[in-house]
Amino acid sequence: MLATLDHIVIAVGDLEAATEVQTRLLGRRPSWRGVHPTFGTANTLFRLDNLYVELLAPRGSGGFAVPLAEWIERRGEGLFALAFGTPDVAAAALEFRQNGLSAQEPAEGLGTESTKGTERRWSTVFLPTAETRGITLFAIEHRSAANLLPSAVPVEDEASAISGCDHVVVRTSDPDRSSDLYGRQLGLRLALDKRFPEWGIRLVFFRIGGVTVELAAPLATTERDGEDHLWGVSYRTKDVEAVRRRLVREGFDVSEVRPGRKPGTRVSTVNGEPSGVATLLIAHD
Description:
Blueprint: E1 4-11, H1 15-26, E2 32-36, E3 41-47, E4 52-58, H2 65-75, E5 78-85, H3 89-98, E6 107-113, E7 119-126, E8 136-142, E9 162-171, H4 175-185, E10 189-196, E11 201-208, E12 211-218, E13 229-237, H5 240-249, E14 258-259, E15 265-270, E16 278-284
Parallel strand pairs: 1-4, 5-8, 9-12, 13-16
Antiparallel strand pairs: 1-5, 2-3, 2-6, 3-4, 6-7, 7-8, 9-13, 10-11, 11-12, 14-15, 15-16
């Protein structure tokens, strides 16, 4: 019942500062700035071609403010959650349970835009982190019209702006158990499972809605009980050279463009992990 990677969530302590950083990184203006009154959080959204990026910060005394603040205090800013899109959140919850996951009952969500008061509604079903190897995963069914979240407008032009998400990276010490989670229990399509001795790593790729969830595991590790960690994002570009030039002007430390590991790709690394996220730019020839 999962159709897309709907959005990625980056937990931040200072929402205004993080919004400024992500605006410069993505080369796009925010699609939405809002609050979740019942959750005690505030957010900024950037809608890209194939998903949206959410910056989420604690604000107020709602039920989610304290655990989010504690997460940031413990780990620092960074990738916090993956939200998978579904056309039927109740059916997704049932399928999760049939696949051995203790899915919570679907819950209604409400977000209010900060300046115009526009409301967006959705339903979500969360999975317990004890069963997802420590990563916050949930399914979301949107109840509002898609046009209430417009595409993020380029600051300069489309060529110099990030266009979409290519893949997200999950670091794991137990790729077999993590593969069972994303493949059998969540139902994502396995696209690659390969060991690369020259890099000392095993990579497992799962595809959903044109985006890859990549599991990365060191070959040398003997640890199998640790939690997984959301680590990085690879962003698609239409012109990686143009994006790199803009980021350099914006003051980012960006590597030279080089051939990617995948044939037919060119990549560039944004050093310094903006907002706590390891960031790669990629262009497909």
